[in-house]
Prior knowledge:
The structure holds two protein chains of two kinds.
Chain A: H1 3-13, E1 19-21, E2 30-40, E3 46-57, H2 60-77, E4 82-83, E5 88-93, E6 96-108, H3 109-115
Parallel strand pairs in A: 1-2
Antiparallel strand pairs in A: 2-3, 3-6, 4-6, 5-6
Helix pairs in contact in A: 1-2
Chain B: H1 16-34, H2 44-47, E1 49-53, H3 59-65, E2 86-90, H4 95-100, E3 109-114, E4 117-122, H5 131-140, H6 143-156
Antiparallel strand pairs in B: 1-2, 3-4
Helix pairs in contact in B: 1-5, 1-6
Amino acid sequence: MTIIERLREAITDAGIDNVFMYRAPDIPECVTITPYMSSPLTDIPMSRESFQIAVRSDDCTAAKVTAWEALRAIESAEPGAEFHQTPTFLGLEDGLALFVFNLDVIASWDELTEER
Amino acid sequence: MSVSLIWHKDIEEVPEKIVMEALWLVGQDTIKEAMNNIPLDTGTLRRSGTVTVGALPDAKAVYAFAPFMSTKTAYEGMVLGPLKVVYVSYNTPYARRLHEDMSWKPRAWKYGRRKGKTIRIPKPAVGGPKWIERALPRAWSRLPQMIARARRKFERGDTKGGGRGK
């Protein structure tokens, strides 16, 4: 199982529906996991993989609650994950509230080979 | 939530004022490194990139100057707060959205005026999200060089200070 699949499983196991990887269909309520950067560590054969979790909903409060639930789900499933920030409101997108947070997961080369 | 602590053994003997100056130089380098990845329309976002020591700058004030001039070194020599932290910030109301929105795509064409005539000029698609994060690893890897540069500045007795105050 790849890292992004692990993150998706952690969120769906918390009871959150409509969790998508890479891109989401045009539906009002969904969670999208997007990998965006990979930084190799200089001294050991490992890498820092960055992901963004975006939650959108037509209800601002529901989006915020879901974003926090997703964060807590990942926090307990991936103890080594480093979060850049707590869920942040980015504004309205076509009338839908958008909350995002970013995190890094340290991966070994074996995991990266599997990922690609 | 985990806490990540990185201990740089090679700089533990370096005096604090030199480290702060070196961090300020790394911040300047980050802005330079990130420049070509920042979404471009009028250039205000690119010019609003600022490095500050101790606290974040007054975003409204920086945004007011950014349409006309680069604010990259606007806070050179100033210490804005007690924290031993150097901040790299982009100070427009839309910077956060553009930095975080992974679905944003740059506009491919722009209408402009040249010699009083409205024309359609081709504009390359430039920029994208996460420009600070993408620039940081490369700028951060130059920390040893920046420490050497900061040390030389102090040895020369250079009175203009970036991160250490005047």
